[in-house]
Amino acid sequence: MVPLSFAGHDFLALPEAALFWPAQGALLVADLHFEKASWYARFGQFLPPHDSAATLDMIETLVARTGARAIWSLGDSFHDADGAARLDPRARARLAALTERLDWLWITGNHDVGVAQMPGGRRAVEAEVDGVWLRHEANPADPRPEISGHFHPKLRLSLRGRHVSRRCFVGSPTKLILPALGALTGGLDAGHGEIQKAVGPGAMALIPVSDRLLRFPLT
C-alpha cells in the first residue's frame, strides 16, 4: 500500500486497483461489474463464468489486508439491472456476509441503475464524506473534491519495443478516478480526451508499486 494525498486527506493506494482511507476505515472500489460473464452468455458469447467469484476473492483479500470496516463501491457494481438476481448461491452468500459485517455503500452507476434490490448494504446516488464527494462518474462542472470510477483508466506505455498496459488511478487537484476492480473489466487509455475532460488540467496517471507511487503527466 502506497501513500496518496488527495484533498487534504491521507489515503493508501493499492496495486490491486483499490483505495484505502485509514481515517474512515473504508476501502473504496469501483466498477466491480459482477455477473458480466453471465450477461454475455445470454447473447451467445461465452467467457469464463467465475468473474464474480474472482472479484469477491480480491475484495475479501483486500479487506483482510487493510482491516477495513467499510466498503464504498463507486458504481457499476453489477454489469446490468438483472446482475444481482443472477448471482449463484455461493457468491450471493459471500456477498451477503460482507455486507452484513461491513458498512457497505453502493453508489449507483450507469450499468446498475436498474437493479431492484442490492444484496445488503445501503444505496445512494452520491455521498459526501469529510468534504469529499463519492460519485460514479466525475462531474467536471463541480469544483469540489471528488472520487469516482466509470472510466476504467489504464496507462499504456511502449517500453523497449513492448507495449505495456497497467490499471491506474487518474488524479488532478480536485478529481481522483479509480481503476476498475472487476475481474473481466477492460480499460480506457488514461490520456483519452473524455478522461482529461472529466478531471481537468494538471491530471496525472498514478500507479502504485511496491514502495512508491509512479506519476505520469497526461497531456
Automatic annotation (TrEMBL):
Q: Which PANTHER family match?
A: BLR1149 PROTEIN (PTHR39323:SF1)
| Domain of life, per lineage | Bacteria
Where in this chain does the entry annotate a coiled-coil region? none
Q: Which InterPro entries match?
A: Metallo-depent_PP-like, PdeM-like, Pesterase_MJ0037-like
Protein name according to UniProt:
Phosphoesterase
